[in-house]
Model the fold of this input.
Amino acid sequence: MADKKQDFIDQRLQDLNNDGVDRRGFLKCMAWAGTGLVWTLSGGVPVSRAFAQGAGQRAGKGADFTFVQISDSHIGFNKPANPDVTATLQTAINKINAMPQKPDFLIHTGDLSQLSKPSEFDTLDQVLKGASPKQIHFVPGEHDMLTDNGEQYLQRYGKGTKGAGWYSFDHKGVHFVGLVNVVNLKAGGLGSLGHEQLEWLEDDLKGRSASTPIVLFAHIPLWTIYPDWGWGTDDSEQALSYVKRFGSVTVLNGHIHQVMQKIEGKVSFHTAMSTAFPQPAPGSAPSAGPMKVPADQLQRVLGITDVNYLVSGSSLAIIDSPLDSTSAQMSGNGGGTDMAAMASGGASTDSATEVKIDNFAFTPGAIKVKRGTQVTWINHDDIPHTVDSTQGKFKSAALDTDQKFEFRFTEPGEYPYYCRMHPKMTGSIIVQS
Ligand SMILES: [Cu+2]
Done:
């Protein structure tokens, strides 16, 4: 893990020094307040400012329009990392409403809910109804797909969209594309757009002039931030190949609950903070997941008042979020999900056995059991997980904290499985005769 962390740091230093940025670049400066980002489009040049940096005062001066991104509201989450996620979303909306120049619309980059419950979506709707911009564009997160493979999400937020909820629209000369990379995730893999959506995207962009500013937005980052934690999208390169010819491409994501930025050629990538709770910096903790910070600091890590600029010349580079510099301790015995766990799985003679779900890992990762054994999975994380057979032989509901799933194995064989929300989480049951 130490090596991977070093690789990550090296990559970021490289990114910071990367001078391959178009000097006539489009994003002149950036500011972030995790809760919401104000984007100002001026002559097709998107510039973002955070609420707290007087965005309202400056935004709009000579601007064509502004919009705001919010993300990862996780309505329904009530664990110690933030017992009142509805209140922090409300704070974000209040700030949006207080902006002197009204944004044309909001973009929500997914994880609206914690468990895809109708009551959670209802609460979200109630809070968003109070936002002064009446137009809100959504993409789903993996938490919005839990009970019905996203049907409810589509009914509520995906009217007129294609497939699992992807779509595009034009606003004052800028082409926006909402992409879905949280469905049909494969065991061991990352986020996925899938063939059908990629075909659609290629087609959607085909006839457009290279001078059209493009904004892509999706829940899981469309660049590889930290694959060990599933923070990337398997087929994002294919998608990005379709935007290469455009002069200005901005990619907005959520999912990782912290700010990361990177520029590659004419494409700039940005992730937003959550309105609900922070997550650790990549590699700085045994696993991803809600991070508890002292109550008086919660607002800070949600970024409402803390703003980071990094302007180097006319180019932008990744900026460190406050979470990056708090440097949580590296744990020596991280909850890796790799198959090293295979070796530790001994044969069990019990007719019942248990697999723990902790720190985004199944423990033990692989076990041998006798035919007829009932296996119970218990989720100890503050985030829901699932237990899905990769062969389609069993499939749990979303397991919230302390919830269980049981399955009795009556036929010998090997049964690999994974979490459909976090496909990097894999495990295996070997049933002996
Ligand atoms: Cu999971």
Residues 1-35, 51-62, 303-349 have pLDDT under 50 and may be disordered. The radius of gyration is 22 Å. DSSP finds ten helices and 22 strands in the chain.
